[in-house]
UniProtKB/TrEMBL annotation:
The protein, known as: Response regulator
Source species: Listeria floridensis FSL S10-1187
Cross-referenced Gene3D superfamilies: 3.40.50.2300
Domain of life: Bacteria
SUPFAM superfamilies found in the cross-reference section: CheY-like (SSF52172)
Length: 136
C-alpha cells in the first residue's frame, strides 16, 4: 500500500509520519510505503492505485488547497483512500460538495494518544474495506 502525506507544516508532518511508523502493524498492513509529497504540483506524477492512501492537509498555505488536491485525486482514481488532516472542524461540507468522499477526517491534535487512536481506527476500517474488495 502506497501512503502519501501532503502536509505543509514540517513539524506536524514529521510528527505524523513518526506516528504512522509507530502504529504500523505488519499483520494488518504487510506492505507499507510511506512518502511525504513536498511538491504539491507533482501529484500528476504519482501512480494512484485503488489501495493508495492519501493524508491531505486541507489548508496548505498555497494557491492550491487539500480540497483541490482531493478533487484531482478523485478524477484520477475514484476508489483510492483519502484522509483529511486539519485544525479546522468546519470543512466537511466543502468536501461533500466537491464529491471527494474522504475515508476519514482527522483533527490535528498535539495529544498523540487521541490522534493515534483515531488514526488506527481509520486505518483498520480501510484495511477491512480493501480485504472485502479483494475477496470479490
Amino acid at each position: 500500500m502506497d501512503i502519501f502525506v501532503i502536509e505543509d507544516d514540517l513539524q506536524f508532518r514529521s510528527y505524523f509520519m513518526d506516528l504512522l511508523h509507530t502504529i504500523h502493524d505488519p499483520f494488518l498492513f504487510p506492505k507499507w510505503n510511506i512518502q511525504a509529497v513536498t511538491r504539491i504540483f507533482s501529484i500528476e506524477e504519482l501512480e494512484i492505485k485503488d489501495d493508495t492512501l492519501f493524508f491531505l492537509d486541507i489548508d496548505l498555505k498555497s494557491s492550491i488547497t487539500g480540497i483541490d488536491i482531493g478533487m484531482e485525486i478523485r478524477k484520477r482514481n475514484s476508489k483510492c483512500y483519502i484522509i483529511y488532516l486539519t485544525s479546522f472542524a468546519n470543512f466537511g461540507r466543502n468536501m461533500i460538495n466537491a464529491n471527494i468522499y474522504p475515508a476519514a477526517y482527522l483533527l490535528k491534535t498535539p495529544n498523540k494518544d487521541i490522534l493515534a487512536s483515531e488514526l488506527l481506527a481509520s486505518l483498520t476500517s480501510i484495511q477491512r474495506d480493501i480485504q472485502t474488495k479483494q475477496k470479490k
